[in-house]
Amino acid sequence: MEIYVVDSYEALSTRAALIVAGQICAKADTVLGLATGSTPLGMYRELTEMHKKQKLDFSRVISFNLDEYLGLAPDNVQSYHYFMWENLFQHINIRPENTHIPDGLAADTDAACLQYEQALQRAGGVDLQILGIGRNGHIGFNEPSSRFTGPTHVVRLSEDTIKANARFFASVEEVPTHAITMGIKTIMQAKKILLLANGKEKAQAIKAAACGDIDPAVPASILQLHPDCIFLLDREAAQYL
Question: Which residues are catalytic?
Answer without folding.
Answer: 67, 136, 138, 143
